[in-house]
């Protein structure tokens, strides 16, 4: 059975109104990454971190999937093989569009995590310092997000999937964040055909045998149509 593994980054959700690290005027531009996206930042000022993720959670809740998300959901439903999405995004837009085979390697905004016992539960709209864990009762609730300096989720599974892939595609990624930046090279070494679909060339564009540039809402549906017509 043919397998397609797709890595998605912030670029696929940008046209749904969710900003990237590099957007001017967005949530990220108002804070230093060290203050809101590291365990050390959370230890220093949990109120600031919760405020930041409460705002991101509210923003994501208002967003709707775009044509690129819907195209990937259609690929999963209609492709005569296996389709896996590995996403760096913490929004739930792939699932909202209908994708079911999704691994959130950086966690998800609508999840909460107990830093004491490791229990996970659905996050409320608002979290705050000392948020109690429903399992152990400790006031150690935090967003279930992989921060800088922490190990991404599902890595053993992801490496196995990459080495089994016939096609690996990276969509809307900068190629600047590891380990995801190494996925293209790893899949290519294992024999996959590698494709980059992006607004502009990423830092790892040389790792890809095929490249397509333009808005995700245009180039992703076109690519999916071609795959389904084969």
TrEMBL record:
Its cofactor is Zn(2+). Substrate binds at residues 53, 56. The active site is at residue 106. The keyword Nucleotide-binding does not apply. Coiled coil: none annotated. One of its GO terms (cellular component) is cytoplasm. Residues 1-230 form the Deacetylase sirtuin-type domain. Zn(2+) binds at residues 114, 117, 133, 136. Binds 1 zinc ion per subunit. Its main location: cytoplasm. InterPro entries: DHS-like_NAD/FAD-binding_dom, NAD-dep_sirtuin_deacylases, Sirtuin, Sirtuin_cat_small_dom_sf, Sirtuin_class_III, Ssirtuin_cat_dom. Keywords: Cytoplasm, Metal-binding, NAD, Transferase, Zinc. Its EC number is 2.3.1.286. 2 residues (Tyr-53 and Arg-56) present in a large hydrophobic pocket are probably involved in substrate specificity. They are important for desuccinylation activity, but dispensable for deacetylation activity. NAD-dependent lysine deacetylase and desuccinylase that specifically removes acetyl and succinyl groups on target proteins. Modulates the activities of several proteins which are inactive in their acylated form. This is NAD-dependent protein deacylase. It comes from Thalassovita litoralis. The lineage of its organism: Bacteria, Pseudomonadati, Pseudomonadota, Alphaproteobacteria, Rhodobacterales.
């Amino acid at each position: 059975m043919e397998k397609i593994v797709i890595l998605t980054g912030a670029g696929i959700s940008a046209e749904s109104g969710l900003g990237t690290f590099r957007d001017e005027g967005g949530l990220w531009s108002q804070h230093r990454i060290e203050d809101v996206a590291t365990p050390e930042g959370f230890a220093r000022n949990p109120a600031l971190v919760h405020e930041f993720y409460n705002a991101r959670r509210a923003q994501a809740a208002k967003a709707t999937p775009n044509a690129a998300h819907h195209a990937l959901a259609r690929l999963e439903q209609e492709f005569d093989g296996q389709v896996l999405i590995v996403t760096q995004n913490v929004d739930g837009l792939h699932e909202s569009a209908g994708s079911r085979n999704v691994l959130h390697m950086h966690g998800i905004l609508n999840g909460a995590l107990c830093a004491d016992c490791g229990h996970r539960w659905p996050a409320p709209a608002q979290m705050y310092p000392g948020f109690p864990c429903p399992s152990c009762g400790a006031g150690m609730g935090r967003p279930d997000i992989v921060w800088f300096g922490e190990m991404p989720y599902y890595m053993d599974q992801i490496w196995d999937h990459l080495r089994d892939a016939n096609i690996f595609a990276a969509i809307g990624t900068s190629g600047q964040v590891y380990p995801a930046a190494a996925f293209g090279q790893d899949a290519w070494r294992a024999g996959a055909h590698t494709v980059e679909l992006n607004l502009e060339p990423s830092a790892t564009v040389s790792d890809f045998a095929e490249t397509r540039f333009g808005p995700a809402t245009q180039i992703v549906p076109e690519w999916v149509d071609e795959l389904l017509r084969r």
